[in-house]
């Protein structure tokens, strides 16, 4: 029998992220400071739109924090009982982030209903100035992470968080200007609802992706039936079983499979061909393949799971 695995994109992604640790740390500090500013002014001015944008900026803080945590977790060796390392910490944090976001969006929408009937007099100038400062902070972080987003999936996630929040800050800024110039106090709950509805679909996708990883479903972009057929079509392979494809954490797909071969097969050649197929066609660089003769396959078939 033969088995083997490859290491490629996972370690490269960790190294690419590692080059941007300082930028991510600075981005985290900037976003956290402006989250506190927006939250404080939002409560002071009783601006639901600003509080909504502060909640959205909190997602940026969490997103960048998760990116940093994933880098440091990836650097820790897989020792003792942690045979897969701590990569799943990023996924658990993402799920917690999604739960928090659902709560924030739900609170904003609930509060907005009452404000449509009796809109408070929100001072437009503090809201406008704070939103402008938040927008400036987002643009700085946006520029800092732009290059890293092209090299690292981990950094790209934080980059997209900031990009989305930049749009929200623009909406709050426009709302503050309209309130200041025309005294349209209904603009505040309207912008709050718009930001809340903008956050919800992203939150749903984040939670869905995290749950898919935690229950070890196959990645969406991989057709498992097609993958099985292509492995079975390799020279000397007669059957494929115990095929599993899952995601360890974002951007790190893993596979394992048993390849049954003819008695005269060169197991080394079959192993290399299988690994090449998974790496080149499906982007799976970490794969464990067991190449076995027919008598070993019969024992596998007797297993109930």
TrEMBL record:
Keywords, comma-separated and alphabetical: Ion transport, Membrane, Transmembrane, Transmembrane helix, Transport
Annotated coiled-coil segments of the chain: none
Membrane topology type: Multi-pass membrane protein
Domain Cation efflux protein cytoplasmic: 219-293
Span of domain Cation efflux protein transmembrane: 25-215
Pfam families for this protein: Cation_efflux, ZT_dimer
SUPFAM superfamilies per record: Cation efflux protein cytoplasmic domain-like, Cation efflux protein transmembrane domain-like
GO molecular function (one): zinc ion transmembrane transporter activity
GO cellular component, one term: plasma membrane
Domain of life: Bacteria
Transmembrane annotation, as ranges: 24-45, 57-74, 86-110, 122-145, 157-178, 184-204
Subcellular location: Membrane
Main localization category: membrane
Family, as annotated: Belongs to the cation diffusion facilitator (CDF) transporter (TC 2.A.4) family. SLC30A subfamily.
NCBIfam families, alphabetized: CDF (TIGR01297)
Protein name: Cation transporter
């Amino acid at each position: 029998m033969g088995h083997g695995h490859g290491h490629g994109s996972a370690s490269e992604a960790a190294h690419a992220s590692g080059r941007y640790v300082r930028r991510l740390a600075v981005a985290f500090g900037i976003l956290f400071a402006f989250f506190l500013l927006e939250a404080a002014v939002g409560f002071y001015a009783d601006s639901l739109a600003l509080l909504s944008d502060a909640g959205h900026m909190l997602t940026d803080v969490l997103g960048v924090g998760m990116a940093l945590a994933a880098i440091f977790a990836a650097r820790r060796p897989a020792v003792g009982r942690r045979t897969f390392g701590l990569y799943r910490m990023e996924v658990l944090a993402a799920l917690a982030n999604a739960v928090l976001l659902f709560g924030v969006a739900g609170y904003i929408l609930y509060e907005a209903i009452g404000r449509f009937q009796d809109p408070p007099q929100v001072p437009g100038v503090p809201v406008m100035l704070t939103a402008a400062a938040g927008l400036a902070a987002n643009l700085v972080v946006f520029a800092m992470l732009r290059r890293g987003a092209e090299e690292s999936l981990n950094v790209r996630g934080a980059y997209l968080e900031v990009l989305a929040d930049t749009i929200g800050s623009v909406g709050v800024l426009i709302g503050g200007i309209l309130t200041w110039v025309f005294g349209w106090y209904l603009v505040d709950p309207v912008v709050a609802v718009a930001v809340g509805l903008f956050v919800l679909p992203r939150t749903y996708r984040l939670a869905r992706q995290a749950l898919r990883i935690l229950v070890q479903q196959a990645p969406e972009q991989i057709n498992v039936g097609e993958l099985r057929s292509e492995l079975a079509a390799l020279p000397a392979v007669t059957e494929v079983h115990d095929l599993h494809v899952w995601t360890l954490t974002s951007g790190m797909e893993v596979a394992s499979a048993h390849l049954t071969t003819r008695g005269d097969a060169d197991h080394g050649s079959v192993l290399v061909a299988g690994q090449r197929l998974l790496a080149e066609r499906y982007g799976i660089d970490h794969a464990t393949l067991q190449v076995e003769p027919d008598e070993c396959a019969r024992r596998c078939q007797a297993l109930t799971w």
